[in-house]
Design goal:
Helix 4 packs antiparallel against helix 5. This protein starts with 9 loop residues before the first strand and ends in an 8-residue tail after the last helix. It is built from 5 helices and 4 strands. It holds the Pfam family WXG100.
Length: 176
Amino acid sequence: MFDEIPNTAAISSGFHFWTSAIEIPTADPLLTTTFAQTTSPRAIETLCHIMDRDHRGQNCDRETVMSDFTVDPQDLHISGHQCATLRTESHEVFTQGHARIDDAVASGWIGSSAQAMQAALEVMRASGAEIIERLDDHSRKFIESATAYQQHDQAAANSITNSGKSFTDPGPLNLD
């Protein structure tokens, strides 16, 4: 469902560091969902659907959703670095495990057993590589999301500040 949302990175996970950065509270702990952006109408619609479960039928609009939406860029950065650490540790574990299996097969497996184990090892290597790639991708996207959020937040703050300046500092009074 979340892969269909344009401009939205959605990750559901039981790991606390993945869900601590941006959370949308729900009554169902399995439904706690992490979002990097919620800019598209489809994303808001999905959030309304999720939030409607919590608000028990109350009218769900952008205000309701956004009031329950919090972002901590520092947590996003930390989550990105934790994913990078997991990626490194996983790569080491997979590499060592695959090497041990490869050594075991080379030390005396023969015939169809050796071929079957080699085929299984190739599947394990491909799966391990995919996991490593996804952890790397998640790490990068968490950090990019934190940076993008901070830049957007600063631009919004500057816009508000500039709007306020036009009211508080109208310039010199022209009496002509």
